[in-house]
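As a warm-up, study this chain.
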Amino acid sequence: MILLRIFFCIIACYFLYRFIFGFVIPVLLATRTMRAKMKNMRQNMGEFENTNQTTSSSGNGAVNQSTTTSASSAKGDYIDFEEVK
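Now compare it with the structure written out below.
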């Protein structure tokens, strides 16, 4: 009888281990990763808005194209080139 009880305790511990390491920990890691990515994205968005505000306020209300192009290329954004005929 005691051997049967030990066997069930071992099986219960195994399933608890599988549940914790198969479901709980990956969910916690995913939420931590998503929070870090969201924080990074908000910081980048704030920097982008700050650069846009400074470039639009310089000059006579016109956006300085060379500044925005260099800022965009430094950030790794896509630059649309016009075709010359």
